[in-house]
Design a protein that fits this description.
The protein folds into 2 domains: about 60 residues; about 60 residues, no CATH class. It is built from 2 helices and 7 strands, in the order E-E-H-H-E-E-E-E-E.
Length: about 140
């Protein structure tokens, strides 16, 4: 895969959003169970919610990692612009209409790898020689 910009480091080691989501779910679930249960069996929803949150905490704090992409810089030489257009039907209720979509790609030649095609942005100038990042 080639990109114009280097890929960032991905840190999933310190991401505990799954645990926080489970806290919200267990709060709603446990609250609903407490409201609908008899008060002599109040320990059941508390134990179930605590067990689920305990398991999700262990998984959240003991999994993940830090991913460092290779980001090998390579020099690409401009070959050509490649336009693309297609027409599709879009429906909204009982109305059907045909819509044209126009895309623009830029083609660069990479020594030893051949040509690579990347989506271009309209109105942006692309240089003859560019540094691309291979991952």
């Amino acid at each position: 895969m080639y990109t114009f910009n280097p890929l960032p480091i991905q840190n999933s080691l310190d991401d505990h959003s799954g645990f926080y989501f489970m806290c919200v779910v267990m709060t709603v679930f446990g609250g609903a169970w407490l409201v609908n249960s008899y008060w002599n069996k109040i320990w059941q929803p508390i134990i179930v919610c605590a067990a689920v949150l305990g398991v999700s905490a262990v998984v959240s704090w003991n999994t993940g990692g830090i991913i460092r992409p290779v980001n090998t810089p390579v020099v690409g030489t401009f070959v050509a612009y490649q336009p693309e257009g297609y027409n599709i039907e879009e429906r909204s209720g009982k109305t059907t209409r045909r819509v044209d979509y126009h895309l623009l790609y830029v083609v660069y030649s990479i020594p030893g790898s051949g040509n690579v095609i990347l989506q271009a942005t309209a109105g942006q100038v692309y240089p003859q020689r560019v540094i691309l990042y291979k991952n």
